[in-house]
Structure prediction request, 272 residues.
Amino acid sequence: MTQLAGRTAVITGAGSGIGQGLAEEAAARGLRVVLADVDADRVEQVAEGLRAQGAEALAVPTDVTDPDAVEQLAEAATDAYGPVALLVNNAGVETVGRIWELPPERWRRLLDVNVNGVFHGLRSFVPRMGASPEPSYVVNVASVGALATAPLNSAYHASKHAVLALTECAYLECLEQHPQVSVSVVCPGAVRTRIFEDAYVADGSPGSDTWQNTMKGYLEQGGITPREAAAAILDGLGTGFWINTHPDELAIFAGRRAEMLSGQTPPPPPAM
Ligand SMILES: NC(=O)c1ccc[n+]([C@@H]2O[C@H](COP(=O)([O-])OP(=O)(O)OC[C@H]3O[C@@H](n4cnc5c(N)ncnc54)[C@H](O)[C@@H]3O)[C@@H](O)[C@H]2O)c1
Prediction:
């Protein structure tokens, strides 16, 4: 990994799953970590665990859908530990159900967390990171779902396509304005987390419960651990726009998408 020991990482969604794995892995590599999550108890517990092991860890309960809260997170991180070297916009949620069966507030909430949360992170942190001459890193967590689509999962797929596009734009804008800030996307495949346990499942959406259970089983059986995902993400810093946790899966999804776009064929059925 690019030498970051002694510098500061901010991770959103750090109370669970990949975010918790990132917090643990970054702390193990000598970074000071600022952990943000909407679940104040969970994120404080993660921070406490890290402090008990001698790490410098600060929990800042934050709802990434709130631009003021994310601004306060940036201030709190800088006040506590100085310039931020790594921001991971990781917080994300899942929703299951057909498009016309999703209540509008659930659709909006998912896009608010998964897309606006990333926008708020870029908005509050990039100018601060760009004001420092030191190299720094922004990683946005999308998904292989950014390159694919599936029934019963429209809000999530739409949000992750948006995260990929937003990250591409941020990469280009930083190249132009803040070349010392490297922007990357990570498109994980299955990681063993609680994301489908916490997923909103639409009422009266036939097959949604089954699909949720299939996905839970798929992550549990076929997923890498959050810590493995975190290690791959930190190893990938400074290597370019794409950071890989699941290179083989990503190549399959990218190939299918390229075929669909160049052949102007309809969306293929889900790969799994
Ligand atoms: N698990 C997978 O297989 C997988 C695959 C591809 C991408 N991802 C992405 O990885 C990221 C992390 O997901 P995970 O699987 O670790 O899920 P997770 O449910 O284990 O963790 C997500 C965390 O985000 C927090 N969160 C939710 N809403 C928030 C908000 N408004 N503000 C701040 N924090 C909020 C939750 O409290 C939780 O602690 C997400 O963006 C997800 O889409 C996960």
